[in-house]
Fold:
Amino acid sequence: MRTIKKTDINNLYAIDKNLCTLNTVPGFKSYDEKTIKIKKDEYRFWNPKKSKLAAAILKQIKGIQIKKDDNILYLGAASGTTVSHISDIVTEGFIYSVEMSHTPLRDLILVAEKRRNIIPIHGDANKPEEYSNIVEKCDIVYQDIAQKEQTKIFLKNVLKYLKKEGIGMLCIKSRSIDVVKKPDEIYKIVEEELKKSVKIIDAKKLEPFEKDHMFFVIHKS
Amino acid sequence: MKSAVLFEKTKSKVLEKGELYSTGLNNGFWGNKTEYAKQLNSYAVNYAKKKVKEATARDFIVSKAVGAIEGLNDAINSYYNRLRDLLSGFYPEAIKEIKSPEELSKFFIPLEKDIINRKLNLYGESMGADMNTHDKKAVLNSIKTLDCLILQRKELINYVEKEMSIIAPNLAEIAGGVIGAKLMSSAGGLENLAKATASRIQVIGAEKAMFRHLKQGAKPPKYGLIMHHPLISEAPREMKGRLARTLSSKIAICVKVDFYSKGKNVASDMKKELEKRGKK
Ligand SMILES: C[S@@+](CC[C@H](N)C(=O)[O-])C[C@H]1O[C@@H](n2cnc3c(N)ncnc32)[C@H](O)[C@@H]1O
Structure:
């Protein structure tokens, strides 16, 4: 028998220790995820090796909360792997999904056509003013862009779009900041930079799911 | 009025959560949250589609075509090696003389031992197995398939060269269409290549060696993709490094001209100069 357990997060379940979200578009695969049907419901496996947010949840990083009516600004949406699972969670909110490169964006658009709460945006996270026509103040600002200037870009967006009591989540890939420096040195620098303008709630490495990645959760102050 | 006007309008300050929804609600654009979600989503989807379409520029297409050429290279080499193995069963002496995939059909068709031996100046009794009609048919079709791949590669190369001479004529002239396209592809498009420095261009395609250099202090790579340029590949060893530097600085200028000031030709003079240097 399978054990299926509810979690604190809407539509997020643990099925035999695997993280799964209830598929809000049953029958539709957003990428090549595994699915499972239990009674009348279809669940999508959320693989922590493919999604850093799933890894962060499994590592029980403090402060990660997503409510069903949250609006999320997601920077570096890529082809929508993680975004699609958040889409299962925020059934009454939006995920403003910013992606710069048009190759992954094509896949993201196809997912967004089926999932109404995904708002795809072809944009550069380093120019947050360019998407203020549709993006409103958000409950969560999430960033995973693997770029040299990622901390600066994150803070820019947090200051502009995160509401006062909002949560920021930042995934840092040390290699994209500097390939030579030791990851720990880089995390220290990022931490100092964050501390200047926001409050760090928790930070953890994503090992064993992801090498050389650090996940920060922050509050605005 | 369509709701797009609401979405398109630039906002001087970031809207509060739900502001767009209530503005639209008050103005009769939508009656409830579901309708709002539907309209916002289709607006964003359509707009993003338009942007992707515009962004799928010619440089993207050519980058992918040059990728297909590389795929064919791999396929041809691997298939050719298997065919050599097969043919060595029938013509062990003759196959030793064959040096490239193109030579297979030239020397082996028709599949007559005497003719093949004469073409290759071989004498004496063969050690190879005899061929029956089934063998012949299988071998012949295989060689023809290889020829098809070779031909298709040639056509793709022509296509890439022609496209490159339109998209980036100076780059194509100085680097050659295919090398130019590969540089463009590795850089992630013409714009990125135009922004790259000469020293970066010099080592595009040598990322692994560069990483080893940075991480483990190994020797820095002298050149990447551009080593296949005849100026470098045909130069004596001791000159390769210096020529690679000169070539990449010319490439950097050419691609900038192609991207920023379309229509100007600067490559012809540079090419002459390069050829002179190569001879020295
Ligand atoms: C590691 S991937 C993100 C994977 C995604 N978060 C997921 O888990 O499904 C990083 C993405 O960020 C995008 N990116 C990099 N710089 C960006 C920028 N300045 N603005 C927007 N997107 C950017 C890249 O094109 C790439 O698709």
User: Anything to note?
Assistant: The interface with chain A takes residues 7-11, 14-20, 33, 37-38, 40-41, 43-45, 47-49, 51-52, 55-56, 60, 211, 214-215 of chain B (CB under 8 Å). Residues A 51-52, 75-76, 78, 81-82, 98-101, 104, 124-126, 144-147 surround S-adenosylmethionine (CB under 6 Å). The two ends of chain B are 72 Å apart (CA to CA). Chain B is about 75% helix and 0% strand.
